[in-house]
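Hi all, long-time lurker, first post. I run a small reading group and we've been trying to get comfortable going from sequence to structure in the token notation. Rather than ask abstract questions, I figured I'd post a concrete chain and ask someone more experienced to write out its structure so we can walk through it together at our next meeting. Sequence below, copied exactly:
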Amino acid sequence: MRKIFALVLSLALALSLFGAVAQAEGFSGEVKIWVADAMVDLTHAKVEEFKAANPQYAGLTALIEAVGEGDSATNMITDVEGGADIFAFAQDQLARLVAAGALVELSEENAALVAEQNDAGSVAAVTLGGLVYAYPMTSDNGYFLNYDKSVITDPSTLEGVLAQAEAAGKSVYFEINSGWYQTAFFFGTGATVTYDVDDAGNLVKANINYASPEGLAALKGMIALAKSPAFVNGSSADNATNYAAIVVGTWARETLSKAFGDNYAATKLPTFEVDGTAYQLSGFGGFKMLGVKPQVDEAKLAACDALALYLTGEEVQAARFEQSGWGPSNLNVQQSEAVKADFVLSALAEQLQHTMGQGQYPGDYWSTATGLGDDVIAGKLNDLTDEQLMERLTQFQDILIGLANPQ
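-- Answer (accepted) --
Happy to help. Here is the structure in token form:
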């Protein structure tokens, strides 16, 4: 059913898709919108503002339902035809949604506006195969360095952070046996791992170069970190003790504010050095976005595109920040005094310039990465030569390649 529906839509839209927004004169009818529960009331209000500012859409009726970003993609893929016309989702679901025919490509005009108005990380997160498929809504999921500035006076290098913590008898928390946090080292040196997805949503190919000089440098950086007396593996601020720094995201803000008090500070992740070369710690970045489902009715498609563009624009992103503290992807909102005064979001925004949006990964990727990190933490790799470390990386890489399941 999904494939038949997508085929019908593609045939109906083939001649008019890219010019839909520019040429439509209006639309009267229902548009179903899925957003997080915390955003339902705000979305209602902003839709009404949109209609007031655009009389050609005065007859539009918005049916706004609370469907979180974690569920919307699965629901859409299960039933594209019965799903929402506009829906919020997380960046790691983009490929699956495109493969399912649940997202329409943006017009050239709207794609240009997205690229102009939003940060580079969020633009990359809505782009697949050089085409833009969604509207960035937030840049607010990722990790960065949170620290006690009475202990860590210079957070610029990992070696310096560790030395300052050691001198104070404090700990530095970094969860290097997590496939999410571990990429800070690998992506930082230029190593990468991503997976291609086929039309059925299967992971069919691993793109990975961990068994390389770049991967070797990353692994040696992790080993050096684990050797420090200050190092503690972990990312839970709630469970951390006697610490001067922790690599974690915005969700730990309240706990860290209590732990560090007026000395609470945050910044991008530091650099680390291996064999005389400095690398900027990187990692995964996370973004929320709005997608538009393909439509048989060109006028409805134009209305959905115009509304999605508005709901992810500067004014509405600012309202989301003010109401719920959601970090904006819009460049102007990021530079507003209110957002810049939020040092936690500012640290995240700075770090996201050095990260890669998280795509789709097989479940066993995470456990495989944990195994590598566990070996590092246990010191099993400490006395290995570069050649032996490369062998370990090759084993790791071969497992990750084997997790793809071509059909």
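A couple of things your group might point at:
The two ends are 20 Å apart (CA to CA).
The chain has two domains: 2-140+285-345, 144-282+362-402.
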